[in-house]
Structures are given as structure tokens and as C-alpha cells.
Amino acid sequence: MVATAAAAHKPQQQQTRVLIVGNYCHDVLIQDDTVKAESLGGAASFISNVVNGMSIPCNLVSKVGEDFKYPVDYTPIVIPTSKTTVFHAYFDLGILENGHQDRVLKRVCACDPIRPSDLPDVRSNFGMAVGVGGEILPETLERMIEICDAVFVDIQALIRVFDSVDGTVKLVKLEETEFYSMLPRIGVLKASSEEAVFMDVEEVRKWCCVVVTTGKDGCKVYWKDGELRISPFSANQEDPTGAGDSFLGGFVAGLVQGLAVPDAALLGNLFGSLTVEQIGLPKFDSRLLQRVKDEVQRRKMQCLHCERSDNELDFLKPVGHEQFHASLGSAKLIPPCSSQARPWTPSNSPKETEQTPIPHYTAQAKLLVNSVYEEPIQTVEGKP
């Protein structure tokens, strides 16, 4: 059952490991003026997908409208007076001269922001502020800092702004936002290489750990006294959407299980590479997930001397880091179970990709990921 705004998220009775805060979205992927796929979107969906895959308990706070059409593991707050946030991702527009941008995002509908009163009245070890549509308010991040031992923030939750006419996503400098003064009280700030240019990394690293993802080159970790480059995993990219979110989910999953930062970042790189190989929200093979969990536990046993408390990060690269990278790479090569659904690709025939409409949250049947997007395109202001 879906919670309404009036009956949203009753407080849980005991401390949880991970609190994820960010709205679910409807993502529409468009190329050559043609809808290629629809998918459940939002950083929270990609992150919870990874956290669930790694069997880590968590709470998730998200808001949607009554038009929300996907089954999810964590009940969102439904706002009857609002629609679910919708993003259109265009893959044939706006390639910049630096060659970095491979898509243009437009927010065509925005659900209500998440407020401090929406958060559970219970402590969490790790909090994750991962808004994508402007739903994380400064006061909400303040509350997360109060109720979480360590807070991890995706910079997109802080620096995204949206064109008032067509909703095109734009970025502003971090220092110009209301969030900048909070940096000394967060644990980790994650950014893509394109987003990192909107902050002074050398300044921000004085206050908190900074992790910059660099796509096929892996990621780089900065802290006050040093920096490390973390190796990538090879991938055949189909869709970059959610790669950074899956990275962050894998990164925190590693830290929750006691890995040092460099090893946790390897786990993040692995899940980022798995995500780009599928369109939309990825489905992780069950055998692969079990192998990865086994490798993480084995690695934890090898590094018992690296154990830390939940609010401390160990930045030193443990002995055997390269071997851990190799073991995760081997896990990725496991052939998928034949019973698992294949990711959507343009080569799949219509008969293979056709899915049955299912009723979810409303009386009207909704199609899953491969349906044609039939609703009229709306801007945030509600104008066609």
C-alpha cells in the first residue's frame, strides 16, 4: 500500500544502517525524436537497487504523485496534488566542444520537495542526500546531518537548477548555494567529472571527502591530506543514466560492510560499470550478486586490522587492493542466469520486449519500461 502525505513514513523503532533521501522519477529516454525506453528513475531508485542487491537494510524517503506507475520495494509518500517528477533524456542534442556531455536532461514535471518532517524519527549510520529534481532543501539536509552518523551527498542535489521554460537541467557553482556552509558537517561529497568543475575541489577537500567519478577511467578520491585514483572496470555502454548513482550505492554498501574507502570505491566502480551496460534501472544477475557479496566478505576478513567506527573513513589503500579489483572483475564475467530478463536493446524484437500492463497505485493500467510514452509532455508550470 502507498502512504499518503497525511500518513507518511511512521518512525521505526531502531537505528537503521542507511537512510536514502530523494524522489523517485519517471525517466523517458529519447533519441532522434523517438522514445527508446521508459524506466523508473531518480538516484534513490538506482541506489536502493544496489543496496538491496547487497542485502543491506535501509530506509528510503521519496515523494511521488498519484500517477506513479512502477512497483518499488520502498513505499513512497504520495502527494495527491502533485505529479511524479519526470525527466526526458535526449541523447542526440547538446554535445559540447569538450566532448563530455552525452545527453541533455529536461525536467518536465516536478513533485513536491522532501521536508525535514518527512524524515523518520530514528538515527541512521549513513545518510544519503540524493535528490535529482531540486527536492532536497537546505533544512532537510540539516536534519539529515542531525540524525545520521555520516552523511553522503550527491552534488547534483545541491547545484542543479532548471530552465523556467523547458526544464533543461543547468548547474550553478556550489559556493553560490545555501548548502555550501554545510560542507564541514558532511562526510562525503560525490560529483561526476562534469559536475566537479562547479566547485573548487582543492577548497572543498579541506572540509570533507570528495569523490569524483570519471566514467571509463574509474574515480578519484580526495581528502584533506591526500588523493587516490581508483581503477575502473571495463563496460560496453548502452545508457549512462544512473551510473554515478549506482557507484554511490556500491561505495556506501562497501563502507557499511567495513571496507576501507579505496576498496569501497572499487565496489562503486563495479556497480557503475554494470549499470551503463543496461538501459534504465539495471537488473543485477543473482549469481553475480552472490559472488560479489562473497568477495566483499572475504576482503573484509583479510582487512580486519582496518576496522573503523561508523563515522570514520580509512583512506589508506590496504594491502591486496589490486587483487580485490581482480576478484570483482572476475565476478563480473560470470554468465547471467538464463531465467533472468535481458536488458532492453534496440535489437530485441517487439514480441520479446512486450510487457503486460499492470495496475499500480491507481486504477488505470500503466505500462512498464518499453511502453510508448503517451502522456502529453508538460513543463513544470503545467504548460504543454
Helix content: 25-40%
* Distance linking N and C termini: 32 Å
Q: What would you call the shape?
A: globular
Structural class: alpha/beta
Summarize the structure.
The protein has helices spanning 43-53, 138-147, 156-159, 193-196, 201-204, 243-256, 261-276, 286-302, 321-332, 350-353; strands spanning 3-4, 16-21, 25-31, 34-41, 58-61, 63-65, 77-79, 85-90, 104-109, 124-129, 148-154, 160-162, 169-171, 188-192, 209-213, 219-223, 226-230, 358-359, 365-366. The protein is an alpha/beta fold. It has a single domain (7-371), classed as 3-Layer(aba) Sandwich (UDP-N-acetylmuramoyl-L-alanine:D-glutamate ligase).
Walkthrough of the structure:
There is one protein chain. The protein has 384 residues and is of the alpha/beta class. It has one domain (7-371): 3-Layer(aba) Sandwich (UDP-N-acetylmuramoyl-L-alanine:D-glutamate ligase). It contains 10 helices and 19 strands. The protein has an 8-stranded mixed sheet, sandwiched between helices. A hairpin with a 5-residue loop joins strand 15 (209-213) and strand 16 (219-223).
Looking at this protein, list some descriptive labels:
single chain, 384 residues, alpha/beta, UDP-N-acetylmuramoyl-L-alanine:D-glutamate ligase, eight-stranded mixed beta sheet, four-stranded mixed beta sheet, 10 helices, globular, disordered C terminus
Topology:
Blueprint (H helix, E strand, L loop, with lengths): L2 E2 L11 E6 L3 E7 L2 E8 L1 H11 L4 E4 L1 E3 L11 E3 L5 E6 L13 E6 L14 E6 L8 H10 E7 L1 H4 E3 L6 E3 L16 E5 H4 L4 H4 L4 E5 L5 E5 L2 E5 L12 H14 L4 H16 L9 H17 L18 H12 L17 H4 L4 E2 L5 E2 L18
Parallel strand pairs: 1-7, 2-5, 2-10, 3-8, 6-7, 10-11, 11-14, 14-15
Antiparallel strand pairs: 3-4, 8-9, 12-13, 15-16, 16-17, 18-19
Helix pairs in contact: 1-6, 6-7, 7-9, 8-9
